[in-house]
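Your task
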Amino acid sequence: MILIFTDELNPRIEYISKVIFSTILQQEISFTTNPSVFLQSDLPKLNYSGTRFDNEIYIQPHPIIYRKDLSKLRIHPVEYKNEKYFFESSPDSVFPFDPFSASFYLVTRYEEYFLSTRDQFNRYQANESLLAEYGLLKKPVVNIWAGMLAEKLKTHFPELNLPKPRFVFLPTIDIDNAWAYSHKGLWRSFGACTKDLLHQNISSIKNRILVWTGMKPDPYDTYAFIDEIYKDSVVKPVFFFLLGDYAPYDKNVSWKNKYLRNLIRRTAEKYPSGIHPSFAAGETNGGKKLQQEKKRLEIICGLKMTKSRQHFLRLHFPENYQNLLEAGIQEDYTMGYPSHTGFRAGICTPYHFYDLKKETETSLKIIPFQVMDVTLRNYMNLNPEEALNEIETLMREVKNVGGTFSCIWHNESLIGQDPWNGYREVFIQMNHKGFEWANGNA
């Protein structure tokens, strides 16, 4: 048990203390606003208040932690050990910055509540973030700061047992297009062929015919390959299925299609699965569509669905998460950037969403991811060797702090041919490394 003294125990302090100590460091905590209780306690303890008493571990809070409104902040960097941090503390604090306030700012995605320059899909851009500005986007800084606090506590209280958290490997797979050519119906297939003819895309027409006649497997049908990767592993990927109505950004086959329904059922029997809310369901007013699509998946599987990841990784705070909560979703896997690898919220441990509009912690668990196949190839233009190096670098960062490494792949990126030449091998090597490290080896 770790005792925390504070002048005023409010929802922000209670929440971020739980994230740092309970969620990351796996320690029980208690609070007191009574100086006498704090000073007389023999528990490992930390003073997070406006007044230092003696030689205790002391951090002066930044004013953001006491605020009850949501307003844009002017943030100045704080230099510490050749790194840039933010939210200054006091000269007599153990750090020149306030790790509680800084962590709160990042994990709540405080900066995303304000108007910013957004991309063509109305998404918050990585280069708008404070972590990108300070060159910290590829560091799990919240976990690192938690480790720094743990070291201070261990120095002051050698009897305190602070085991290092274990590395967790959590791959995920999105099924945006279950097949390239198969099972798409007569009119849609006819339209695709006509489009290929107009663009003189002879190779595509040839491939379609070979697939339709059974002379060649559908290139996106990589499900047997995926099964082979995970057949002997306790690690199982989480699958997300797109079941929205057909639209420019939602082009999976119909949720009524018997082949898709069979695929979903077979997959859900073997792997944890969830809904991939459509582009339309990702709008701030898309709550009803989200519930409809979730219901479709539940009808197909005969199971209650509690996991979700937004299509196109579209997140608007707090509306999308409020919609998920209303739909009964318990876990969301959207926290990451489409254009950049790294740590969008500065953390690599699953944690609960804090609604800044309502100033309350919610039951929705956020599972951040660090890398996506499309980011590596389409945004960063990495060849397979470079992509594997990028993945392993991020995995090492996560392993160093005992966090959860999560990634996004698509069935269509595992085809083993153009335009994804070499990426199937990247997937294989990533999984081998993940299995090894998750088992405590290396």
